[in-house]
Write a structure and sequence with these properties.
about 350 residues; alpha/beta; Zinc Finger, Delta Prime, domain 3; 2 domains; 5-stranded parallel sheet; about 55% helix; globular; binds zinc ion
Length: about 350
């Protein structure tokens, strides 16, 4: 009899893999799992690995990562494994309805028909509702893998029918090693990205493969630093730009980045021995730490956090950003000397 292998090709989350592998080995697989955790922590990666594990045809180590089902699933090309993503904004009821219809068909070649529903916490209540019947009486060959940043916004009836697996950020050291050994990063670059990732492997991999992401990060930090020396009119123009329809979707990430920046400023201004995250901004952060007291840095940090929380509650984004702009201190930063 074949065993499900311990190595799922996933960095970290060993306990979750162990739990899933044990359930598979014992034939106690549930029909719906709910992976929760912060964006980029590895929810979809783990869900894909699980889709491979249940459909792998290797005799010894599942998932083997090299058989036909494994490779097709890894490339998101397997006919019986689909990922449901929101077209724009949230998952729509039609998407879920269409998906539910395909579930009545037996898998074409795999053991399980697997559907991964991404960021389901952002789906409309109607879209969640459309999934309920399937969750109540799933066909025996169906495996539903739901991902969500947090379970709070899910209908309780959805939550109660899924096996929850809450993924937490992994140790930055683990991210660093994976970046060096699996993605050929130099140790210095890997250390910086590992810190920035906050233990979110998926985020780190995206940062490596998506050049845009690095330049967006640089832009957002530059905009913040520029704003410190700007008057109210320019700051409000930035607030308008960041909360425009085009950019609104990025705002949570912008604020998370700014939060890490002000946390660094607070660490430096209070002479803490904890290493800072945005080490490539050391030159500016040192100036801020000299100009502001720890209390002042803390105030800004709290203002950013407040803004992030307000956006989470769907307040007017532009207004929230304008308030934040007024809470930023007025400072002139000098550029780092070239080289
Ligand atoms: Zn395989």
């Amino acid at each position: 009899m074949s065993r499900y292998h311990q190595n799922w090709g996933v960095t970290g989350h060993e306990w979750a893999i162990q739990h899933l592998a044990r359930s598979l080995n014992a034939g106690r697989l549930r029909h719906a799992y709910l992976f929760t955790g912060p964006a980029g922590v590895g929810k979809t990666t783990l869900a894909l690995a699980m889709a491979m594990a249940v459909n792998c045809i290797d005799d010894h180590a599942r998932p083997c990562g090299v058989c036909r089902p494994c490779t097709l699933i890894a490339r998101e090309k397997h006919a019986d494994v689909s990922i449901l993503r929101a077209d724009e904004g949230a998952l729509k009821i039609e998407q879920v309805r269409n998906m539910v219809q395909t579930l009545s068909l037996r898998p074409v070649e795999a053991r399980y028909r697997v559907v991964i529903l991404r960021r389901f916490n952002e789906a409309t209540p109607q879209a969640m509702d459309a999934l309920l019947k399937t969750l109540e009486e799933p066909p025996p060959y169906v495996l539903l893998l739901i991902t969500a940043d947090s379970a709070d916004r899910l209908l309780p009836t959805i939550r109660s029918r899924c096996q929850p697996l809450n993924l937490r950020p992994i140790a930055p050291m683990q991210v660093r090693e994976a970046l060096i050994f699996n993605h050929n990063l130099d140790p210095e670059g890997a250390a910086l990205l590992a810190q920035l990732s906050g233990g979110r492997m998926g985020w780190a991999i995206r940062a490596v493969t998506d050049g845009d992401m690095q330049s967006r990060r640089t832009d957002w930090l530059q905009q913040l630093e520029d704003a410190l020396d700007q008057d109210r009119v320019k700051r409000f123009a930035l607030a308008e730009n960041l909360s425009s329809t085009k950019n609104r979707g990025d705002l949570p990430e912008v604020l998370e980045l700014w939060l890490s920046y002000w946390r660094d400023a607070l660490l430096l201004s209070s002479h803490a021995s904890t290493p800072i995250v945005n080490r490539d901004r050391r030159h500016s952060l040192d100036q801020i730490a000299r100009a502001l007291s720890a209390d002042q840095a803390l105030n800004v940090l709290q203002a950013v956090r407040r803004t992030a929380r307000m956006l989470d509650q769907n307040v007017n984004a532009r207004l929230a950003m304008e308030v934040l702009m007024l809470d930023l201190p007025r400072l002139r930063l000098y550029q780092a000397p070239p080289g």
